[in-house]
Amino acid sequence: MRKDFERAYLTAHDNVAILTMNHPEVLNAASPTMVRGLFQALQEIEKPDSGFRALVITGEGRGFCSGANLAEVAERRGEPAGVGSELDSFYHPFLRKLRDLRMPVVTAVNGAAAGIGMSIALMGDIVCAARSAYFLQAFARIGLVPDGGSTWLLPRLIGFARARELSLLAEKLLAEKALEWGLINRVFDDAALMEESLKLATRLANGPTVSLATVRKLYWLSAHNSFDAQLDCERQGQETAGRSEDFREGLRAFHEKRHAEFQGK
Q: Using an 8 Å Cβ cutoff, are 1 and 14 in contact?
């Protein structure tokens, strides 16, 4: 199964959706055209009858995503208002939809993840990288500021000092150092990246999907909440998970001393 979108395509590995950015000639630079295609693919993935219970995002060819495709962004690109309007029209809706997806997301970073490509990579619940991959806050190199939520994500992942360093100096951060800093979760040999990423995604896809989707939501909410507010969110989330078929199966499996067979319901 393969379904093509604008500069992206969707394939399946059992109940795992694989969303591939597909403009390898420019290392999958994320144009508005591509981001529109990615958004449409997410709409397809989240259809109730799709059967998907986890998502892997990767890039075709030698790179994950080399940043925004400035050649497509702009006749208006020299005008700050023009650049900002592209974010509102295309990039932000995609990032919000990815954040709100009701299944776990694994990103498989194969090569450069620069600019907004770095933000897309870091949207994964589990971020996997090839040993040759690198991350780059490239914005200062062309006189822009970080976007794609990176000024929100980076301080929470690696602290303010390292976040500012990456954005101000615009230096490459190699995969091994990104792992050491706690920016990403796993590093694999290049040839093993997709196989290992799919193993993780399959493990998540065979888990209790309602529970895992609620976990995702709770962690996104936690950045804005007080402790008391987060306790309330956890209670609401527990009520949601507690009404699921998978919770009942989990209880049966616990009492019967066997592995649970979750159906994602």
A: no
pLDDT at res. 80: 46
Residues in the chain: 265
Residues assigned a catalytic role: 92, 147
Helices (H), the chain: 32-45, 70-73, 80-86, 92-99, 116-122, 150-158, 160-169, 175-181, 193-205, 209-222, 227-242, 245-256
CB 225 within 8 A of CB 233: yes
Answer yes or no: are the C-beta atoms of 65 and 26 closer than 8 Å. no
Q: Give the pLDDT confidence of 200-230 residue by residue, as tens digits.
A: 999 999 999 999 999 999 999 999 999 999 9
Instruction: Say how far apart CA 167 and CA 163 lie, in whole Å.
Output: 6
| Beta-sheet pairing, 16-21 with 54-59 | parallel
Amino acid in the structure at residue 116? I
Identify the band that residue 74 occupies on the pLDDT scale cut at 50, 70 and 90. low
Q: Report how far residue 162's alpha carbon sits from residue 183's, in angstroms, rounded to the nearest whole number.
A: 10
117-176 pLDDT, tens digit per residue, is 999 999 999 999 999 999 999 999 999 999 999 999 999 999 999 999 999 999 999 999
DSSP structure class, residue 26: G
- Between strands 173-174 and 134-136, the pairing is antiparallel
For the purposes of burial, counting CB atoms within 10 Å of the CB of 199, is it exposed (0-12), middle (13-18) or buried (19 or more)? middle
Closest CA to 248 of 230, 236, 263: 263
